[in-house]
Amino acid sequence: MATKFLDPAYKGSINQSFREKRFNFFLDLLKRVDNQPPIRILDIGGTEIYWERMKFSNTNVHITLLNLDKIEVTREGFTSVKGDACDLSEFRDNQFDIVFSNSVIEHLFTFENQRKMANEVRRVGKYYYVQTPNYYFPLEPHWLFPFFQFLPFNTRVYLTNNFNLGNYSKSQTKDAAIQRVEEVKLLTEKQMKDLFPHGKLYRENLMGLTKSLSMYHFPEIQNT
Questions:
Q1: What's the pLDDT at 16?
Q2: DSSP type of residue 44
């Protein structure tokens, strides 16, 4: 399993440090949204715990957490709903001020599904911030195995079925291993730009290499 050094659940982990840095970037973007409160955020795949770890305390914001199953929420300003990131037809166009998503779009099995999610993000949100690991970063972020994403499919299935790697315990069956490997489709910078053609790119770098990619669309800063 992931070590404390890499596990974002631990305050001093490198992944938590990166999350906090890019979340601070998001907070700077949030300041550009000059709407009457509450600012409505749809967090696709989000949890209360994530926002707590980011020490988020803005009372002028309401956050709707969307997951495959409805989850319990305890904090004021949060709502949980059941939904599908690829089909947000329960929401009208521009229903949310911001659509936010952290490390979700790579878990949709196919690029077609990723495009569906991207289209829905841009439809239901006036603005958006979508982050995902970079395909070309040498250390695959789920299995924490160097160059895992470049290995042949059957090799990835074998490793997943026989070893505890990164965030995953070894799969109970080969079919489960196949499904796990098929689920994760890391994206390149070119693909993210294709999915969000009107967005801007934020690169998160480690030792001169791009670790993750975030596409965002927010109001431009007005010169005074």
A1: 73
A2: E
Give the domain CATH number at 39: 3.40.50.150
Domain count within the chain = 2
| Residue 122 near residue 130, CB atoms below 8 Å | no
Count helices and strands (H / E) in the chain: 6, 9
How many other CB atoms sit within 10 Å of the CB of residue 119? 14
Please indicate, yes or no, whether residues 39 and 147 belong to a single structural domain of this protein.
no
pLDDT value at residue 46: 95
Does any domain span residue 98?
yes
The residues, any chain, with a CB within 8 Å of residue 202's CB and separated by 6 or more, are 22, 25, 213, 214, 215, 216
Q: What is the pLDDT of residue 58?
A: 85
* CA distances in angstroms from 11 to 3, 16, 55, 124, 158, listed in the order given: 12, 6, 12, 33, 33
pLDDT of residue 223: 54
Q: Which residues of the chain fall below pLDDT 70?
A: 1-13, 222-224
- Structural domain boundaries, residue 148: 143-183
| Residue 132, both tokens | 């995902």
Q: What confidence score (pLDDT) does residue 4 get? A: 47
Are both 41 and 59 inside the same structural domain?
A: yes
Tokens of 201: 């790119």
